[in-house]
């Protein structure tokens, strides 16, 4: 009996921890954002600078996700299908952006492309300014979200039965047709899932972006940095309002992903 | 005194009635086969006996002790899982010794018991292997030894032969039967293979759709199936659409049909087993009113007999013909002698012997 | 085609990862070994690493314990009902979808100086926001899914049969967990621990918002990097960042080892 009591209290403790740590803070943001009613919420969200920041973030994150879809597919393909010197090394390196503090990632890109580096100066001299401009933000987003597409595709590629491809060849299909009709459909769930993950992560990215974006309102100020600015200037209501928009967008993405590929991730 | 007693056991999963009103008892030392089609509730019943599933209602007692409130740990049972569930990170010896260590046996005693079981199950030489280094049959022996080690009062086996390929399966069946009779532990095993149940079990419990359909020795069940389901599940049976085509049985059938309809039961169903049909050429047997004329419509060699299909009126019957006789040819006219029929209506069942045949035997005796 | 794509992949890795890493390493050694040593001789730098270390230890310990327990609950807790577990399962991923800055903001909104909870803790002499407790909470939030997502699929995969076998052999739940379940999930848990260490060491946005980035008090290694960059003190920023990157590489090696052990187990079982 005593043991059952112990078990019961342990279970309740775990659930309570979960609720307090994860669910409560989310309610707090929604509560604060809408605490003064609809009107102030709407004003905070439609403030021109806020709107600019949100729109810029969505655009750049989408671009970064698409770049990663291409780079990630190529990388995953080469890492799974080809045997070449350095493969194991590169495969381990894929996870580095996960392991590296995002601020360090931002600093690395700043140093490489910044005004003090050889590369940055060369690029500036041919008229390509990158740092403190939108391209730098995209590069930072691509860097941080690079592992998602690769790591989502690799298991699918490994599972793919070579016999399916061979069957396609024996039926007279060309390499390109086989890729398009046989391989791509099998990879699609992983590709979409990975790209969506990269997109939602890029939407939320702060550390890597804040150091290299320049954060000029209306030009290079992304949503998360805007929220940070509002918190710093003691305007939590506005911060919460923009957070509500960003959060809702992220949740929608998360639930879409769960609905579309839930069975995969649940496995 | 019954060793295992189950009374009115019920279990529902959501809206699915997995086990419904099952009651039976088993005597000490018997080997029971729990037989039925997949999804019939056999495994659920077994898991409830083990305490791995909580029944919605009913009572279970093992060795005269009610175990309803006891967790699996305290029921004194051994369980062999379908895929053996060997502990992957433990060697053969560690697997077998696990239950004894849990019970805090002395080291020397554990050592002795494990050695005994290794010898009994023929696993000597494999002591230090891990489960993934064993063959299917060896894994099953380990699972068996592990379940037996703590000297359970009741051994439960869930589809013990399902994961083994057909060739080894036959050997293992005989091995298991021998082993259990040597150890003398009361055992229940689940199977969906009727041949396996008939061959291994002392007694069979047949389950379908959560209900216990019949309990008895394999011969009893074969000889007198209680429901149409069992008649088709144990052995082969052909359903008869129209009893009037089988003239010799017509009278008996009509009287039973009358009785049945009087009692307001469902429709009368009739089955006949291939083994109780004799097919002969006209010169092989004296003409008799017990037999019917038929035409051979299909002949196939089946290794131990001819498998013959004959058309009798509108009814097609399946029969066997011993290889010792000449083979029949297609379209040949033959005489068909049906020895007995099974009739079912609602909860009742009848075995009807061919009346003319018994009459004929009577006559022969008098002469 | 094949050679070209391998070349391209090498190029991607070089441009995206190796070149920035190399540039930073070069930058950190600009003033030689002495410059590097000077940075780490600063008490505020040492303090920042100390704060980071404390957060990593507390967060990893708590999330490991509760992550494993919650995974057990989500996968094995049939008493909870399927619907409830599905909902909780979706909720676990929530922190993944939340920007770290918002994660920090949440803690401020809940426990800040003007909130009910904040004043409650304040009156008992516990400062939550702009202090270590708030930073720990923010990091806990951000890293919460890592352990659950690592352990839950493993539990699902090993199934319940071995555990049931242990029960029928007389082992109590506690013993069954340590003797049967734990050996199967061990490397998954270790993988989760390494991931949690990486994320809590590297956490920046949430901590920056909650901590106020007060030198010698709430500044962590990552927020120190940020501040040094803002002050255009690149040598210090480089040195600290390089140290963090070095730790990340170590963590990466740990991840690789854990992953390989995890795979070995998986293959051995099948």
TrEMBL record, chain A:
Leader sequence residues: none
Keywords: Membrane, Sulfate transport, Transmembrane, Transmembrane helix, Transport
Domain ABC transmembrane type-1 positions: 54-257
Protein name (Swiss-Prot/TrEMBL): Sulfate transport system permease protein CysT
Subunit structure: The complex is composed of two ATP-binding proteins (CysA), two transmembrane proteins (CysT and CysW) and a solute-binding protein (CysP).
Purpose: Part of the ABC transporter complex CysAWTP (TC 3.A.1.6.1) involved in sulfate/thiosulfate import. Probably responsible for the translocation of the substrate across the membrane.
PROSITE patterns: ABC_TM1
Membrane topology label: Multi-pass membrane protein
Regions that span the bilayer: 12-33, 53-80, 92-112, 182-200, 206-228, 240-261
Protein localization: Membrane
SUPFAM superfamilies, sorted: MetI-like
Family of this protein: Belongs to the binding-protein-dependent transport system permease family. CysTW subfamily.
TrEMBL record, chain B:
ABC transporter domain ranges (all copies): 4-234
Signal peptide: none
InterPro entries: AAA+_ATPase, ABC_SmlMolc_Importer, ABC_transporter-like_ATP-bd, ABC_transporter-like_CS, Mo/tungstate-bd_C_term_dom, P-loop_NTPase, Transp-assoc_OB_typ2
GO molecular-function terms, A-Z: ATP binding
Keywords: ATP-binding, Nucleotide-binding, Transport
Pfam families: ABC_tran, TOBE_2
PANTHER family, per the entry: SPERMIDINE/PUTRESCINE IMPORT ATP-BINDING PROTEIN POTA, SPERMIDINE_PUTRESCINE IMPORT ATP-BINDING PROTEIN POTA
Protein name: ABC transporter ATP-binding protein
Organism: Tumebacillus lacus
From TrEMBL, chain C:
Keywords of this entry: Membrane, Sulfate transport, Transmembrane, Transmembrane helix, Transport
Domain Cytochrome b/b6 N-terminal region profile: 1-158
Localization: Membrane
InterPro entries documented for this protein: Cyt_b/b6_N, MetI-like, MetI-like_sf, Sulph_transpt2
Main location: membrane
Domain (ABC transmembrane type-1) ranges: 49-253
Complex and partners: The complex is composed of two ATP-binding proteins (CysA), two transmembrane proteins (CysT and CysW) and a solute-binding protein (CysP).
Protein name (record): Sulfate ABC transporter permease subunit
Source organism of the structure: Tumebacillus lacus
Source taxonomy: Bacteria, Bacillati, Bacillota, Bacilli, Bacillales
